[in-house]
Amino acid sequence: MSALLLLDLDDTLLKNNIDEFLPKYLDAFSSYLGGAIDPQRFVKSLMAGSQAMVQNRLPDCTLKEVFDAVFFPLAGLTPGEFQPVADRFYQEKFPDLHNLTEPVPQAQEMVKEALRRGYRLAVTTNPLFPLAAILQRLKWANLPADQYPFELISSYETFHFTKPDPAYFAEVLGRLGWPEGPVVVVGDDLTRDIIPAQSLGLAGYWADQHSVDEQPDDMPGLGHGSLEGMLAWIDASPDENLLPDYSSPEASIAILRSTPAVLDGFTRGLPEEAWAERPFKDEWSITEVICHLRDVDEEVNLPRLKAVIETSNPFIAGQDTDRWAESRGYCLQDGKRALMDFAAARHQIVKLLESLSPEDWDRPARHAIFGPTKLQELVKIQAAHDRLHQQQIRQLAAR
Q1: How far apart are CA 268 and CA 122, in angstroms?
Q2: Whole-prediction pTM
Q3: pLDDT tens digits, residue range 299-328?
Q4: Which residues, other chains included, contact 204 with Cβ-Cβ below 8 Å and sequence gap of 6+?
Q5: Would you say residue 243 has pLDDT above 90?
Q6: 330 with 288: CB under 8 angstroms?
Q7: 293 and 342 in contact (C-beta within 8 Å)?
Q8: Are 62 and 158 within 8 A, CB to CB?
Q9: Which residues does residue 372 pair with via DSSP β-bridges, in sequence order?
Q10: What is the rounded CA–CA span in Å between residue 123 and residue 101?
């Protein structure tokens, strides 16, 4: 069975001691800027922007936009002054830092063997750097992106969440179209890679050969060992142990929070006519799909969730929301505005769900179609509905 491998970069494919690398990186960057900014002020501004990225929960702002909003006021620079210099730094000076890193010897052969097997590969490094820096580090790992067909490389220009947020991995899978089959997150960091992946319901391989005897007892299905043993662990694992399970409340919340971010990623830069184009006469356009998601969240999902939370075993009526596309003229609406309104409505739902106690997820309801159900089941259905429409917009945007 084919699999999707989500591969961490630093200290998984590339040996990179961050305690040694980060000071040298900051010193090289501040020196390259010359007298444009005091080095201490630059480092303080850069670290503040990085912290803002880690804390970001806004699904309609890329990490770069979050970083810029914090960095430039603190640094006292304008994007026009800083960005061209930064671009040159990553082209001219950043490559000199390669001697602080070392390729993981077995990484290249593992990637080659995975490709021979027909596995899909994505580089899921924490997206706190520009793509230019990540491409350089892949070269240092002897895995240049122009020679290895990675389907996705997460960077701060295009992603909205960071590790250890499970929504980061949900955003990755959404961008990849929620593929069928086994998914394995491979990383060296238990906290940033493995635990959030398992929160989303994904299999994980903890590539940490220095702590092989320290696997947590409460994480069944977790592989643990050297990177070169990862494929053998996959071979020895039952297929069902490697298949995603998105049924937990944590997984549902991560998917729901990631959906506006995934749609933002698919639609940025699309020409206006692409938003309104229908692939076939009876199929929705991108704008119509987003209007549908917005109105269902505002008028169906949020009221239903509140009813289940606030009422004892309420009756949930079915609603035919598909007809709203024609009756409300979705095709004539502003798709970008609809996406902003959808993100706002979705934020209310996620905030509500994140406030629940474990007992609240078992609250009962009577659904006109599904019969007796519980809050957790209703939210899981909403997350599955999201995944279908993410796949739909991915296909529409690709056209």
Answers
A1: 21
A2: 0.95
A3: 999 999 999 999 999 999 988 899 999 999
A4: 184, 185, 186, 187, 193, 194, 197, 198, 219, 221, 222, 223
A5: yes
A6: yes
A7: yes
A8: yes
A9: 366
A10: 18
**Residues 361-395: pLDDT tens digits?**
999 999 998 899 999 999 999 999 999 999 999 99
Find how far residue 58's CA is from the centre of its chain: 12
Rounded to whole angstroms, how far apart are CA atoms 11 and 101? 9
φ, ψ at 104 (rounded to 5°): -75, 120
- State the first-to-last Cα distance of the chain, in angstroms, to the nearest integer: 29
Q: How many residues does the chain have?
A: 399
pLDDT of residue 50: 97
Sign of CA dihedral 377, 379, 380, 385: positive
Six-digit token string for 175 = 């961008």
- From the list 130, 202, 121, the residue with the least C-alpha distance to 159 is 130
Q: Cα separation of 40 and 29, whole Å?
A: 12
SS (H, E, C) the chain: CCCEEEECCECCCEEECHHHHHHHHHHHHHHHCHHHCCHHHHHHHHHHHHHHHHHCCCCCCCHHHHHHHHHHHHHCCCHHHHHHHHHHHHHHCHHHHHHHEEECCCHHHHHHHHHHCCCEEEECCCCCCCHHHHHHHHHHCCCCCCCCCCCCECCCCCCCCCCCCHHHHHHHHHHCCCCCCCEEEEECCHHHHHHHHHHHCCEEEEECHHHHHHCCCCCCCEEEECHHHHHHHHHHCCHHHHCCCCCCHHHHHHHHHHHHHHHHHHHCCCCHHHHHCCCCCCCCCHHHHHHHHHHHHHHHHHHHHHHHHHCCCCEECCCCCCCHHHHCCHHHCCHHHHHHHHHHHHHHHHHHHHCCCHHHHHCEEEECCCEEEEHHHHHHHHHHHHHHHHHHHHHHHHC
- Give all domains of the chain, ordered by start, each with its CATH number: 1-245 (3.40.50.1000), 249-398 (1.20.120.450)
367 φ, ψ (degrees, to nearest 5): -100, 140
Q: pLDDT tens-digit profile of 3-49? A: 999 999 999 999 999 889 999 999 999 999 887 889 999 999 999 99
